[in-house]
Amino acid sequence: MNSAPSQIQPPSDQAQTAINALREEIDQVDRELMSLLNQRARLALDIGRLKKNAGLPVFVPERESDLLDKLAQGNHGPLPNRYLVSVFREVISACRSVQQPLKVAFLGPEFTFSHQAAVQHFGSSCGMAPQSGIAEVFREVESGRCQVGLVPVENSGEGAVGASLDQFMTTQLKVCGEVYTPINHVLMSQGDDLDAITTVYSHPQALAQCRGWLTRNLPQARVAEAPSTAAAARQAAETPGSAAIGAVAAARHHCLKVLAEGIQDYTYNTTRFLVIGKQDVPPCGQDKTSIVFLTAHRPGSLYKALGELAELGVNLSRIESRPTKDRPWEYAFFVDLNGHRQDPEVAQALAALESQVERLRVLGSFPAGEMLS
Ligand SMILES: O=C(O)C(=O)C[C@]1(C(=O)O)C=C[C@@H](O)C=C1
């Protein structure tokens, strides 16, 4: 894999002069941006003082979502919306932090895809609080030690994350956001020779997602399960002749070489996370609502329940069943629907649904996440 360093020819004097002139213009733009960013931070500080006096939370998901939507709609390039939105997420993150740093609980350790999702959504000017399990993420937010948490709820290939659904059955926390994170697995190692790799470490789910690639490209290697993709990266950094599968951030953190990227068997491999917190989020116009309900053990009860939503033209984006645990062979149904609980047709549908089911809880209405690919 070693290739000779390419010979970079020095630019002509004319090209160098033009580059220098453009760099001076960039310096000027950067000075203006800095001044504007500080002006924006001062405005955020003013808002922060007013919110504090009124007892309002620093984090306002619907405003952040609306602001990013408006910027994306008004953007005429050349920066693609994806890049523009991630720059502004960082700007908002910094302006939020000058008011009060947000503490985010997520399923740790650092440099896993959950960590990546937390940074993607909240920006890097936050206190990141990695937890040892999904239940611990809920406890951190319930106790107030963290204002928000982020938990995985489903993967495009592997389906539902049961441990998160179980927590939603009993918690009083609300869903206040949604994040889609592309899971782009890389193979990382100290060396750069694929043939010399004898062991590949990773989390069982990551190994399962890359099984086909491993069979084709590393038939000689044994696979070894690790508690997380980040732990696998650490193990690869400590074990010569081994490799790990995980996020590129873990490779960077452990100074490992990325030998192959996007090695998951299905190119569309995305995990959906939910943001949990204590606040009710008002509508932003692009909302979803998560609910959970139990139906009576009678023929047609689920059919009737869903019929109420269909009658009012409410679109469902997901339905999932999960054993209730307290009564054997009884199930809770998790449904996500388009719209906010305050939208008249959603409010009407939820009231009608309530009359058909044994127990209904609205987990929260929140700005719909953007599906990145
Ligand atoms: O609008 C607010 O409430 C702000 O505090 C400003 C701001 C921003 O930077 O735009 C920061 C944090 C909030 O979550 C939403 C928006």
UniProtKB/TrEMBL annotation:
Residue ranges constituting the ACT domain according to the UniProt record: 290-367
Transmembrane intervals: none
Molecular function in Gene Ontology: chorismate mutase activity; prephenate dehydratase activity
Residues covered by the Prephenate dehydratase domain: 103-278
Essential for prephenate dehydratase activity (site feature) positions: 271
Presence of the UniProt keyword Isomerase in the record: yes
Pfam families: ACT, CM_2, PDT
Reactions the enzyme catalyzes: prephenate + H(+) = 3-phenylpyruvate + CO2 + H2O; chorismate = prephenate
Coiled coil feature spans: 12-46
Entry-linked InterPro entries: ACT-like_dom_sf, ACT_dom, Chor_mutase/pphenate_deHydtase, Chorismate_II_sf, CM_dom_sf, CM_II_prokaryot, Preph_deHydtase, Preph_deHydtase_CS
Entry keyword set: Amino-acid biosynthesis, Aromatic amino acid biosynthesis, Coiled coil, Cytoplasm, Isomerase, Lyase, Multifunctional enzyme, Phenylalanine biosynthesis
Location within or outside the cell: Cytoplasm
GO BP terms, alphabetized: chorismate metabolic process; L-phenylalanine biosynthetic process
Signal sequence interval, chain numbering: none
Enzyme Commission number(s): 4.2.1.51, 5.4.99.5
Example of a GO cellular component annotation carried by this entry: cytoplasm
Domain Chorismate mutase: start-end pairs: 13-103
Pathway: Metabolic intermediate biosynthesis; prephenate biosynthesis; prephenate from chorismate: step 1/1; Amino-acid biosynthesis; L-phenylalanine biosynthesis; phenylpyruvate from prephenate: step 1/1
PANTHER family assigned: PREPHENATE DEHYDRATASE P PROTEIN, PREPHENATE DEHYDRATASE-RELATED
Functional description taken from the UniProt entry: Catalyzes the Claisen rearrangement of chorismate to prephenate and the decarboxylation/dehydration of prephenate to phenylpyruvate.
Protein name as annotated: Bifunctional chorismate mutase/prephenate dehydratase
Protein's organism: Desulfoferula mesophila
Gene that encodes the chain: pheA
